[in-house]
Every structure is written in structure tokens, then in C-alpha cells.
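May I ask for a sample protein chain and its fold as C-alpha cells?
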Amino acid sequence: MKIVLVHPNYHSGGAEIAGTWPPSWAPYLAGHARSAGFDDITFIDAMTDDLDDEALALRLEALQPDLVGVTAITPSIYAAEAVLDTVRRVCPAAVTVLGGVHATFMFKQVLSEAPWIDVIVRGEGEEIFVALLRTVAEGRWPRDREQIKGIAYLDGDRIVATQAAATVKNLDAIDPDWAILDWSKYLYTPLGVRVAIPNMARGCPFTCSFCSQWKFWRDYRVRDPKRVADEIERLVNEHNVGFFILADEEPTINRKKFKEFCEELIARGLPDRVKWGINTRVTDIMRDKDLLPLYRRAGLVHVSLGTEAAAQLKLDQFNKETRVADNKEAIRLLREADIFTEAQFIVGLDNETAETLEETFQMAWDWQPDLANWSMYTPWPFTPLYQELRDKVEVFDFSKYNFVTPIMAPAAMTRGELLDGVMRNYRRFYSRKALFHYPWRGRGFRRRYLLGCLYAFLKAGFNRTFYDLGKAGYWGPQTKKSVDFHFDTSRQIAPAQMEDWDAAADRSARAAERRAAVRAQGKERAAERMMACGGGQQQMPESLALEVNGPSEP
């Protein structure tokens, strides 16, 4: 059975400025498929190779696969749908498969707009994908497709979703096939070395309202730290990787295992050969302040913090469960440990103003992270915050849901003014850093790393890829009234998806009503118990009060 995996060709001016990132989904999926006996697997990275539809068609036509698998985040969904449309055209006998977070939660939308997709994998892909491969290889597709858990498909005009599959309980059983990638293509710009994005844990116990990862992975699971260190060692020895970023939402949640992972790297002498970075929460940094020197010795040099907002009101709206003061303290602790800090701010909600944008700049400068990013709020259509703001979302062109395009239109600003305000923050922050900090703060690796980060920003700015400025036609404040984000206004939410949302909203509302009724009933019963225990006008005798309530605190 011949399998082809394709990473769709989608570009935006966000994370790409720091390097060319390896699509880690392919090695993890391919590795698990190989362990199940499926060895004929080819990977095409259409994004890194910048393959247009016709170039991709030629590659696929030459391969003539039996099955083609594609993944998509929300902004790349149309590119992924186009890949599978190309497959249908040049390899009509191939089974077309789509996975990823967007398809998982928006399968009704996807199947409505791209009915040529044979099957959608919903959720964590490795075990579902292997079950699908076996069904196809044994000639039972599509006859037995309803028996595969965790998929969705069209049956005539009817959209069918099978029972959800369980999450992968033993992550250590997944052995990624990193050799499927052409490693010469994947470079981390600040250091000029090969970069990898391995996975240590999956899931997140926090429920930030703007995020979908906790919904996608569902439960938190962490791998054996020694097995992860084995993987890092192979990446260094076999593929000459010099920098890696843990793909986890928050790898430091399990303090004990993260510490073991760091100790394992040190014991193997890997910090001299590879450096790495993570994303995590400020609360974990404060909790682990005594361990930060150990983390640094293990090669951890870059921490991106989800500070998200400079105002407590926004942190509460995002359900971050953190305080503004925590952000400043976490950055100070990391700086003392000689770990580079990157502060992330989310801007561009409907209540954004010039004053709130200025507030984020002043806060960033006061905190003094090494790097700062202002990301446009992207209303993922499967998050709680989106459902709250649904009536204010006007743009349904998901290709623009990329953290750099202002999807929301603030009441007090135009989208062009919002973009200009964000660019003003970037200009001021990095010009000051370039003049007064990066060349003069520290020496050796610190200086080289910071200047490398500055080079990455300047390169993206010169090429007009930073923040998609070239596509939008932004050249400075003088163009803020003429920028064009090229929204495809013909894109709308499919009726089937809207019905699904409305039903979910109704269920959520009924659940909230039940919770409120239970709370009210609990309060009523508590009041009745108080009355029964002497909560009326008359006081209980002291002896009875002690018997019921116990002695008071001194």
C-alpha cells in the first residue's frame, strides 16, 4: 500500500520569521504507521518547497498513491482542501484523508465546502490513522468505515461522525520517523542551525478561553523523560539538529518529569551540542525559580511566556488564571538565570484602543523581556471566547486566521489603524533593543543569540514577509488607511456547521442553567440548615453551638 503525506503550501508572516520549521506531524504519523507494518510512505513538504498546485500534481501523478493524508491548522485549511482536490484530479482511486485541529472541530464545515474529501480524522491522529490504513489495505473501505472510531465522512448528502476515539494512552509507543524529513531544509535563523520540534507531553489542564489545544488533546499525558532524551540524542547524532523547541503547550506542568528530562540531557552531555526553547506559563516559572539554573545548564536558552495581556481585565477574559504582576516577576527570574525571555501579547479584540496598545508597549518595556510579540487575536471558531464574540465576527475567510491579520474590527479603530499601532510597538521596542541592549548586554552566546534574533526580524522586514506586510500593502503610518487584507467575503459558515454550533450553544446554556439551579438549591439548603441550627432571631445555647460548630479559631 502506497501512502503519501503532504504538508500544504501556506505562508504567513508569523512564526516563519524565526526559521523554516519541520512539520512534526508527519514523522509522528509515519513512525506509528511503520510500526504497524506500513512501510511505503512518502512525505511531500509543499510549504517548505513552495510547490504550486501543478508542481504538486506532477509529484502525485508520478507516485500514484493508494492514500494521501494532509493536515491543516485553521489558516491552512483551504490549501489542504486544494491538495486533496488535486489528488482527486490526478489520482482518482486514492483515498483522501484530512486531519488536524481545524478539521477535528469543523468537520461539518470542511465536508460542506470540500465534499471530495473521503475521510476526516478527528483528534489525535496516530491510532485512528493506523485503523484507517488497515481498513483500506484489507479492502474493507468504504464498506466498514462506520466501524472506525474518530472519523467523519459524507454518506451521500449526510455528514456522519463515528464515536470519538480514545486518546493515545501510551505516548512512548509512538516512535517518530524523523528520517522522513529532508533536514537540510529546516534551519533556525537566529543560530543558523538545524531545528526540530519534538513532543514531550500532550494536553493542558488549563482552559484558556482563546485556545483550543486543551479541547483537542483532551487529557494531559507525559512521556518517559529518558525516552524523550533518547529522541533528542538521535536528532542530534543522526540529523545534526542544533536547536529544538518542545511542541508541548506547557512542558513544565509536571515539574518532576521536566526536571528528570533536564538531568538526563546533562548526563548525556547534550547541552554542549544542542540548545532548546519552550513555551510555558509564568506561574510555572515562579514555582520553579530554584530550578531555573538547572534548566539553563540543560541547554534551555529561550522561554516564550504566554503573558497575553498587560491588563488584568483581559487576563481574566482569557481565563489565564494569572496576574499582571506575575508576568514581570517571571521575566525577572528568567533573566537572572540567563535564559532569554519572549513576552507574548494578544491584541485586536473588539475593545482594543490606541491607549490599550500603548499600555502593552509600556508594560513590555517595563518588564524588559529580550523579545516581545504582539499577535492579533484570532477567533478560532471552536473556542469558548469565539462563542462569546460570535456576533462581532465579520470575517469567515479562515486563510486570514493567522495571528497577523486583524480579524476583529475594534469599535474605536479601523483594522489599518490597529495594524499600524502594532507596527509602531514593534518599531519602538526593537529599535531601542538594537541600539541600547543587544550589542552591549552580555557576551559570547548571549550576544550572538540576540543579534541572531534581530537579524531574523530584519530579514523578514526587508523581504516584506513580516506580519504579511507585503501582501497587505503596509509601508508605514502613511498607508494605514489604504491597507488591504484581501478578505474573501464569499466565505461563510456552512448551514450544517451553524446548526452544530447552535445545538452546542443550547446544550451549554442548559448546562449553565442546571449549574446555577444546583448552586441556588445548595445555598437554599445551607440557609435552611443554618435556621435549623439556630440561625433565626434566637441564639443557640453556647454548649450546643460548640457541639455543632466546634471551637472557634483563637
